[in-house]
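Dear colleague,

Thank you for sharing your sequence with our group. We've completed the structure prediction you requested, and as agreed, I am returning the results in plain text so they can be pasted directly into your records. Please verify that the sequence below matches your submission; if there's any discrepancy, let me know and we will rerun it promptly.
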Amino acid sequence: FGFLEAQSAEKDSLLWLNYEYRLAQNLEFADSTETILEEADYLEFSSLDWYPVDTNFMVWARLELTPDTEPFDMPTTTDRKSRYRQYGILHFQLSDSTFALPVYRNLRLKSIPKYQDHLFFPFTDLSNGFGTYGGGRYLDVTIPEGDSILLDFNRCYNPYCAYNGRYSCPIPPAENQINFKISAGVRYTVKH
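Please find the predicted structure tokens below.
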């Protein structure tokens, strides 16, 4: 069992996890007690519109911690403010482009056991308004034990407010612009 076989097995495992993730997301949207959809959209819902899983959008990032950053209010799509702190900088590469973008921690959620190791990576990219939600998308990641973190853009998703106006969603900060087209994760269409 050599190095190439190990890499292939890891990719197969990641692909399988992506399919499980997609199934769970679709089931949540289809569940009348869990769905965020408005009633008319819920009645027509069959599946989110996903890009095909692409291993080119599974990249390892180096996490540079920024422990001295001050808490701030991240603007949202309503008057509500969300309190965050920049947790670190993610250094990663997509194709021939390198990026160094902030990742955040929600100060309210970090006290809830389910979210204690949760980081929030909101971003905009060149697909926004051209196949994905115009206001950007989100990626949830887990605080790693070391300084390496997997960014699997196949799991990026649209803010809830893309589907239902009753939600207040954080607006990705200007510094979280990826000058690259992320053709991965959930697409955005008016009808789901």
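Summary note from our side: The radius of gyration is 17 Å.

Kind regards,
the structure core
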